[in-house]
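Session log. Operator J.P. requested a structure for one protein chain; no other inputs attached. Running the standard single-chain path with token output.
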Amino acid sequence: MGMGQPLTPASASAERPRQHRIRRAIALWVPALTLLGVAALVVKSFVFSEREVDCVTASRSMTPGNAVLVCQREYQRTRRPLTGIYLADVLRRSDNLAEAAGIAKELLSTEVRGDAQQILAKIAKAQNRIDDAIAAFQDARQWHREHGNHAELARDDQALAELQIDAKQFAVALQLLEECVSESRAAADELIEGYCHLSGAVGTMRAGDFVGTEQELDLAKHLLSDDRDLARVAYWRGNLEQEMVRSARRNKRNNRAVAAFEQALELATRARASALLLHLYMNLAFSRAEVGNFDAADHDLQEAGVLDSHGTYANQRAQLAARIAYRRGNLALAFSLNENLYPKVEDDDEKIEVSVVQARIALAQHDLPAAVTWARRGVDAAEKIRAANPTGELRPWILASRREPLEVLFTALARAGKVDEAVAVFDRWQGSALLAEMVRRSSGPSPALSATAAMIQQLTQWLPAVSSSALLASDGRAVTEALGKIDLVALAVAADEHEKGELWRLTANHGRLKLESLGAVDALQERLAQFQGTPTDRGPAGELGALLVPDGVAHKTTEPLYVVLDAPLLGLPFVALRRNDQPLIAMRPVIRTPRLPTASVCEPRADVRDALVLADAAGDLPDARQEASKVASLFGTTPLIGDAATSTALLGGKPVSLMHIAVHGDVETGGGRLRLHDRAVSAPEIAASKLHPSLVVLSSCSTARASVPEFAGSLSTAFLAAGAGQVIATLRQVSDPGSKELMTRFYEARGANDPVHVLANVQAALAARNDGDWPYFAIFSSQVCMPPR
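Structure written below.
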């Protein structure tokens, strides 16, 4: 058959199968040959990569699985201990924990013992063997310290601190992180230092030092540059904003939280940080619901569901779905979701949150029995936590959330007209707030981590004694007895079903109790602020007096009126409120009490002969020095002035009947503090000291640097918890001349023998002269003095 000869039909028919077989063979072999070629290139590339990339580089740039192959071959060839460490670490990161532990244990007898202990500690942590993890990290720290390895020592400090934070050992954790920062700086390693500060932010936030958290986040952001790390910084900033919202109910914080989480989401997406993305979507769903962006919140929750493929966070997602429905106004759906969820919730704090939302929904639907039932469930969960941790919590938002069910229960009982039950709940609610008041911190610059750690450590030593004091204990029978014999006005701000403040007033007239709502506190804010700023202005004083002071107590008498003011109203100069154009103090004495007072049998006050006078500890209060000298001369004692005004003189001296203290004070971590010559003495330390003076006078100079009402509340509560009978303090800064005149009049009229009536007479006289400082003085007590039987 010639090349040019055309095929006959028969020959063409015979040729077609052969061509088909050739085409089929080509179709099969070309891809196969191609794959072989590609495989050869891959093998060549891998062999080349293995030859060119060492274990250290592979552990940093490859996935853990590929890095294991490189490091295994290098370790088999070289048996270098450092290579073994990198191999053990990549095995750990690829979840081959048993083999990683085996190699690390082999290296304990080599020069990399500290690094091997570090690997074993991380494996123990992954297996939830926390005690073993702590022991291994401590061994690693000792080895790295002995060998001067600052970078690894910093890593040990950070890892140990994170374990201590999880265990709520905040003082230990913050001290470790202070060392972590020092060691990372010694190693000139900014990356590790950034991680130290990021862990410091977590530790300070969980300890309740929000100012410290902001400082640590700013430092971490300055030092870190990787998208994954910056995403974590933004994530914790969003968490901080959320926690500040929970403690203060400020909606602008919700918007800031959304912005922070959105920034973190963008960075985490770019860094492919899938584990972080799940938490970000859940947090975004919460915060977006809080600002009313419900569709976006739903989308975030759906994304979280996709990422939570194993259902690890199913309960939390269900709780978020209920929260979104609640904020959207779909109360029936929210109630149903929470009702189904509640039996599955194991964490008591989460039980509190679910119970409070359910109680608020019931209030909104006017189902008061259901509101009471759900609020009591929240109270029971809070009591369970408190019983397991009798010294209390230091974290303000946790304390606030655990008081919240008492607020809601009070509101439900009050609306149901169950006054006696509501009064009992009110007393528990106010009593639970006292400890938080004493450990409240200011908004000023936060001290170093080690200083905050020291303060927390001291608080954990003092709080057991404070918690066991008579002031913080509940004695319903003694309260009932006292209310049956006195006049009392109590004002409290309880969150309503819309989570807005509702002002309630409890009035007691020798056993006749009346409880009534005065409306939304927001509507009164402008008048309250105006009155607190200028309490001698007759207009605001009269308007508020007509609202806050009931007719039954606004009459002329020598019998004291007991006044309880909730935390948002602590700075209210109640004595200056007017009825019939007269200040209340001109009608009757007023005693401020931190909670409903108890009845106590007491003897008539004898002449005061033993007094302790402390003044001018910093040497910059000449008026206080003169005042102290006069007071001391009245009681035949020597004033302790300047360098003699020490903490030992206050806390370690012999028992006295009168304490007159005129030194600087402020509100810092740990609550109100008196600045004595050698050091500052905090409210909890005072409360734990059991001083038992009959009268404490905190002269105006003691609040010269504090214009916040928490100072007076914190220190007066502390001295009362320490056993003082009565405390005179100022609610805000007053002038030196004004303080000097009031104190002079008080002591010249033998005020130490009858402080309640003498202070009232002095204030009434100064009110008639239009003096501007008298309204800010108050006398505090916690008991009704009953005559002996």
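Operator note: Confidence is low (pLDDT under 50) at residues 1-51, 701-710.
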